[in-house]
Amino acid sequence: MAGAWNELASYYENLPESDNILIGSIDCTNSPKGKGLCARFKIMGLPTLIYGDASFGGTYLEEYGGDKAFHDLKSFAAEALVPTCNPGNMDACSPDMRKDTEAFTAMPYEVLDNLIKGKEKQQEDLQTSFKETFAKLQKNYDESLLEKEMQIIRAKANVKLIKEVIDAKE
């Protein structure tokens, strides 16, 4: 892991846009400051890779769960680690996202909390609906599979019977 990580750091150090990129490491075991950062970002296992926009105290950081070879890390970084729209980086926003972000910024906390609750409820409803649909599909699949197996058993029994009849005729 350390080799791939160091290779990735070297790769990004040589890019012209590297001013906005930090590839670093934190010692979560022996350094008091490192232990504090690891606790803050809930890093439990090592190695753990976190990525994202460090604006607003790391609110937008996420844990990377992919493969940790150099080419995997480089591919992930090229695809996923691009500037994202958020209140700390409005330059990365499309006109529609900028409009939404500005509208949300103008809203009072209570309205924002209600919007979050509504969106979380929507997510839960979608998950529930998916589970119900999946259960119905699974039931249909199981029934179809059973019917297929029963037809195969009947067909095999008929083949056996026909062969026995042929043998009896001879």
Topology:
Layout: H1 2-13, H2 32-40, E1 49-53, H3 55-58, E2 60-64, H4 70-80, H5 95-106, H6 109-169
Helix pairs in contact: 1-4
How does this model look, in words?
The protein is mainly alpha-helical and 170 residues long. The model has no long low-confidence stretch (mean pLDDT 87). The relative contact order is 0.06. It has six helices and two strands. It has a two-stranded antiparallel sheet. The chain has helices at 2-13, 32-40, 55-58, 70-80, 95-106, 109-169, and strands at 49-53, 60-64.
Number of helices: 6
Return Rg in Å. 29 Å
What summary fits the major beta sheet? Answer: 2 strands, antiparallel
> Helix coverage percent of residues?
55-70%
What is the averaged pLDDT score? Answer: 87
* β-strand number: 2
N-to-C order of helices and strands: HHEHEHHH
Structural class of the secondary elements?
A: mainly alpha
How widely separated are the two ends?
74 Å
Which parts are unreliable, with pLDDT below 50 for 5 consecutive residues or more?
none
The proportion of residues in beta strands is 5-15%
Taking strands numbered 1, 2, ... along the chain, how are they ordered across the largest sheet? 1-2
Inertia-based shape: elongated
